[in-house]
Amino acid sequence: MSELRRDPLRGEWVVTATHRMERPQMPDEWCPFCPGSGLVPDDYDVYLYSNDFPSFASPPPPMSVSPGPGSVWDARPSWGACDVVLYHPDHDRDFLDIDMGHLVKLAALWQKRYLELFQNKRVKYVLIFENSGEEIGVTIPHPHGQIYAFPLVPPVPGAEMRRAKSFKRRTGRCLHCRLIEEEARDGRRMVFDENGWAAFVPFAARWPYEVHLYPRRCAGHLGELSYEELRTMMSAIKRLLATYRNYYQRAFPYMMLFHQAPPRGSVGEGTHMHIEFCPIRRSREKLKYRAGCETGAGIFINDSHPEEKAAELRSLLAGPHD
């Protein structure tokens, strides 16, 4: 059972997906994503797998509630799509263990599926993301990410896109390009700025080691990137993850989140695609929790200065990955 319910106090949509309670939790003896499982091909390099426990589906499941006319409650079917993207057939690899030629195939799959999903006019936003690590909530450790197609624009990218659009119409410039320019000029929060990609700890970082990765060329979404730009993007991602590994000195939990403009319409006007990395450890041993202030007030409390964390990452910067 899965449906969308709107919170009448915040105006935000929440998905109730009760069937997800049944998804497997770190199985020891069998992995559904490994070749030979019976659920995926016996031979693949990268593979798109339809989520067995989707939050959104087409057609959506029947609804359990139907608020009447004039009710303060609102609900709608959870129409959409949830894909699992399998990075590699080898269960024991992670992003850093995958060679660049293989990673470019993954980038091409992301790009193809992103554009493909938007061919359906009911899709309003597509989020490509990776959750990595048991502390994040990963239930199957096989190297994979996910793609969600939403029937609405979610609040976080929606707020970013509204501000970018307003800035563009007011100044004629891209807000994100302006941010990159100011970060490069200031320098204290930059991690690296090479081969067409700039990585920095944002001025108002919410997580201590949060880093945003931008193409220097102002591109709105993956569909606008050339093959060479996809290759340098994957090289930059791998370099950043290797730098994190240099700091944490072990596998670490993180979220990788692609923020992009929809390829049609004006909602994404002024948006410059970027990838946000949010490791949830505030030190090598301590987790950063989203606790009372973050959840109750919606204001993050960062335990450190972004300038300090960027300097730490620069001191451990991994070499380019070609």
Structure characteristics:
322 residues; alpha+beta; nine-stranded antiparallel beta sheet; three-stranded antiparallel beta sheet; 12 strands; 26% helix; 20% strand
Describe the secondary structure blueprint for this structure:
Blueprint: E1 2-6, E2 13-17, E3 47-50, E4 74-77, E5 81-86, H1 100-117, E6 125-132, E7 144-150, H2 155-171, H3 175-186, E8 190-194, E9 197-200, E10 211-215, H4 227-248, E11 254-259, E12 274-279, H5 292-297, H6 306-315
Antiparallel strand pairs: 1-2, 1-4, 3-5, 5-7, 6-7, 6-11, 8-9, 9-10, 10-12, 11-12
Could you please describe the fold and organization of this structure?
The longest helix has 22 residues, at 227-248. A hairpin with a 6-residue loop joins strand 1 and strand 2 (13-17). The mean pLDDT is 94. Helix 1 (100-117) packs across helix 4 (227-248). A 9-stranded antiparallel sheet has the order 3-5-7-6-11-12-10-9-8, sandwiched between helices. Strands 2-1-4 form a 3-stranded antiparallel sheet, with no helix packed on it. The chain has 6 helices and 12 strands. It is α+β, with helices and mostly antiparallel strands and 322 residues long. The protein has helices at residues 100-117, 155-171, 175-186, 227-248, 292-297, 306-315; strands at 2-6, 13-17, 47-50, 74-77, 81-86, 125-132, 144-150, 190-194, 197-200, 211-215, 254-259, 274-279.
